[in-house]
Amino acid sequence: MSSDATRWAWLQSGIKSTSKLVLLSLADRAGETHECYPSIGRLCQDTCLDRKTVIGSLRALCDCGLISDTGKKVGRTGQIIVYQLIGVDSRNQDDEFEEVNSTKTGTVPKPEQFRFSDETVPFFPDNSPVFPTKESQKRDTEPNIEPNIEPKKESKNINNRKSESRADFENAFSIYPKRKGDNPKEKAFKAWSARLKEGFTANEMVSGVHRYFAYCQAEGNIGTQYIKQAATFFGPDKAFLESWEVIQTSPSSSTPYKNSAFGKQPTTRPIYTYPGGDADAIDSTAIEVFDAQARL
Predict the structure, then answer these.
(1) pTM attached to this predicted model
(2) Per-residue confidence at 39, pLDDT binned at 50, 70, 90?
(3) Total structural domains within the chain
(4) How many C-beta atoms lie closer than 10 Å to residue 287's C-beta?
(5) Distance CA 188, CA 180 (A)
């Protein structure tokens, strides 16, 4: 690599950008004699140009007199052309020091220019008062230690509530009246969870299951298809809030028989139950109406 050839290539103007890219690649691979012999494939890889554009650029550089074909060929196949860079000026030591000491704005000494200097670069230890370490550098070099954040207790409470909800459901489902047909358990649990989110408590739903079981047992519906599915019972209709009261009817202790067109028929009367009253407290007017109807 020749720094003189590279500097010379950068100073060329009046050529296409693609041709200058190819020229810079040639200069980057030139030796002390300013000869280079990169292959077409290598030039394509260096410049990111296609093969046709690279060949056209080489021809254009030859036509404008910046490079020339030396007639030599190298490579394993002997087909790679050796090009000569034309017009490259070699700089001596005095020119390099003159450029370094120049007062022109923007002049920056290059690394290779210091090889002729006897001066040594002064060494300053770390945290020297001459060049103290900046706070920003300390922040960049300090290890980034992330704080150890303990999991919040709220997540534990949520898990506990979920486990308690599941246990309450399992208890309610175990005492739910058996039915003929399907009774999907997980579907019922989803309905149960939805009611809990709406603000209903597990005790309300368990109490509803107890009332419903007593009602179905009194009606003789346990084990039949008339039992609601648990998902329906805990569903949006909220059947667990119903009273499910059992209305009992029984014949009188002394069953009178009345004559009718169909012979003697037993006369029965319902037991009227009043809140806070006696189950045998019967309205006399209602009995007279009932007996009159039985004689017809």
Answers:
(1) 0.34
(2) very high
(3) 3
(4) 13
(5) 16
